[in-house]
């Protein structure tokens, strides 16, 4: 095993998973991301997938590609804004499902868009034929995005994915994933639009209250996101920006 893999805590047990046919680990995902970035160094993203669980991704303002881990189900998928319209992200998910809420949270954390909304387009990605190969599809989709190709136009040879990835890791170089000529099953494309709020630039989630409102523009904010500022308000009027402060002062002046 290459010494560089030690930083990703890749073990023989992780590689055995590829042979045994069970779900692959975050170490395998991170190593695959490393190999893809090494081959396509101008591409941006490829952050440690474990950072997504605690929303610790570094903000990216330009084109990026990233594999995300989500719960319910325990699942891997790929997101990118390469080739997307402004304030839009493509999601490549090998399960035909609505976008998982924790994927939305991670995307918002990466981008921290200042726009009112985020559009997520579920692409016509290949549908996995079992419940264990999502990580392989996520890696293959990331690879082809980084290489400048569109995964939704390709038909992966699912039977060969594990053997191919294992060889790439052992060789320290990732190559094109095997394809088939026949048409593979696809997930249904769909678009979802999310309204963004607060300084965290996240959608409004059930049970999470926007408990502080700007006195000028009426935008809502989470007290937890405002931190000490919210704690020190104590019946004081809150305004979210300098421009809102000026508007509020004008309102007070005109009322007097």
List strands and helices in order, with pairings:
Elements: H1 12-20, H2 26-39, E1 65-70, E2 75-80, E3 88-92, H3 101-111, E4 117-122, H4 134-146, H5 161-171, E5 190-195, E6 212-213, E7 220-221, H6 223-226, H7 228-231, H8 242-255
Parallel strand pairs: 3-4
Antiparallel strand pairs: 1-2, 2-3, 4-5, 6-7
Helix pairs in contact: 2-4
Quick structural gist:
With 256 residues, the chain is an alpha+beta fold. The protein is built from eight helices and seven strands, in the order ααβββαβααβββααα.
Explain how this protein is built:
- With 256 residues, the protein is α+β, with helices and mostly antiparallel strands.
- The chain has 8 helices and 7 strands.
- It has 2 domains: 193 residues, Adenoviral Proteinase, Chain; 44 residues, no CATH class.
- The radius of gyration is 22 Å and the shape is elongated.
- It starts with 11 loop residues before the first helix and ends with a helix.
């Amino acid at each position: 095993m290459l010494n560089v893999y030690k930083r990703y805590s890749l073990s023989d047990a992780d590689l055995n998973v590829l042979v045994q046919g069970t779900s692959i680990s975050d170490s395998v995902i991170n190593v695959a991301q490393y190999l893809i970035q090494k081959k396509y160094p101008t591409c941006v993203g490829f952050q440690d997938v474990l950072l997504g669980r605690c929303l610790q991704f570094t903000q990216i303002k330009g084109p990026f590609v990233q594999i995300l881990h989500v719960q319910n189900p325990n699942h891997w998928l790929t997101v990118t804004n390469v080739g997307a319209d402004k304030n839009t992200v493509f999601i490549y998910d090998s399960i035909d499902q609505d976008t998982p809420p924790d994927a939305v949270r991670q995307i918002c954390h990466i981008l921290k868009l200042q726009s009112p909304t985020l559009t997520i387009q579920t692409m016509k990605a290949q549908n996995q034929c079992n419940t264990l190969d999502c990580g392989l599809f996520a890696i293959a989709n990331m690879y082809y995005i980084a290489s400048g190709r569109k995964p939704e136009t390709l038909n992966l040879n699912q039977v060969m994915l594990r053997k191919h990835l294992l060889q790439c890791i052992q060789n320290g170089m990732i190559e094109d994933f095997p394809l088939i000529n026949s048409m593979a099953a696809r997930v249904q494309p769909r678009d979802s639009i999310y309204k963004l709020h607060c300084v965290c630039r996240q959608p409004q989630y059930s049970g999470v209250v926007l408990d502080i409102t700007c006195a000028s523009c009426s935008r809502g904010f989470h007290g937890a996101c405002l931190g000490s500022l919210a704690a020190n308000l104590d019946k004081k009027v809150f305004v979210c920006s300098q421009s809102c402060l000026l508007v509020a002062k004008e309102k007070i002046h005109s009322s007097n």
